[in-house]
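Today's session is about reading a structure prediction critically. Students often jump straight to the picture, but the first step is always the sequence itself: look for stretches that repeat, for charged clusters, for runs of hydrophobic residues. Only then move on to the predicted structure, which in these notes is written as discrete structure tokens rather than atom positions. Here is the chain we will use throughout the hour.
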Amino acid sequence: MNQVQRATLSLFLLMVSLFCSISRADQVVLKNGRTMDCIILAEKADHVEISLGTGSMNIPRNQIKQLIRTKSRKNTTAPSLKGNILSEQHAPAEYADLAAEFRVLMNRRNTAYDAQYMTNYYTKEIRKLNNKIKKLQNEASLLNAQLSEKRGEVAAIQVPDQPPRKNKDARIYNQKITERNQLKLEADVLYSQIPPLIQDQQTALQKIVTLQNKQKTLATPIGKYLKDLAVFSSAYKQVKSTQSSPADSKSKEFFSKIDRLLTQFETEMNVVSIPATSKGHHTVVRALVNGSATGDFIFDTGASIMTISESFAKQLGLNLENLAGITAIVADGREVKARSATLSQVTVGSATVDQVEVLVMPSKPNAHADGLLGMSFLKHFSVNINGASGEIELTRFHNE
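Below is the predicted structure for this chain, in token form.
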């Protein structure tokens, strides 16, 4: 099974997992203390293949402490997780709800981890396909140049409409006819090589669109996890601040385990601080688009999609005639004609997102900006704006 087939299977497994409780899932207990709720797909001599909900991954055997299957299947190692302090049965009674919320968070973290893994994989595949398209375009351009040159050579051979009667002239005539026919044959060979290259380009473009659509679905569990992690961390701090130091060992173990796992989760976060300036009533940030053009964009979490102006699109070299036209509704309720596109890359500070959907608008949102930095970029992050300094923090779950 190849990676794309695995991704298709894993998306199906995600839908199945939405209707299954955590207790019904298989579990992999790692030596670092983490417990992964998953579906065990296969056990190999050196690794175990599992699905976390949106894709499959392999875990080396030397990192695994224990494999636990559902009740319908036999556990592969012992002992069981009877002592898991975060389990429904063994969490302290007064913190049962908190334990349940944390188990949900762990499950979403695992799903986000896997979603990011597949997102990274799709990004690499898209880059490979884009490189392939560039190579095919170069080959087609070279063939077209050779074909044009060959046709010029054919046109340069002047041959009378009727063959001459003199033997000497007839011999020269026949030589020219032979040479011209040979050049035509070579031109036909060159011409026949171009359509397959164009077809390969179209096939690669179709694959890119398919992978981009898959990436769109993967952004949802990642964004959900980031939001839930922030909510849980805030609520957890409040619980701890209102509780006196737990006297019993069970509660101590409970809080200690959550503290340890939250610390691990925090190390998995990539926090980027981006500078922003106030222009009028708007917060504006600088963004590098497609690695070629830099513009000012209004930071707008209320915009469902990033926008760029037509003038900025022309700086990027986008051919507006080739973009699909749509009707967009702007903030004041007006309907405007726009065009849909996908940017290969958008970078704000050190935060980079590949394959960002945008709308090309006929005009700028205002005189200070080239567009809006909306949720098609920001959905990949947890956003925090410091009201005092105006500094923006973008927190992203990473899994390279």
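Discussion point for the tutorial: The CA atoms of residues 316 and 362 lie 15 Å apart.
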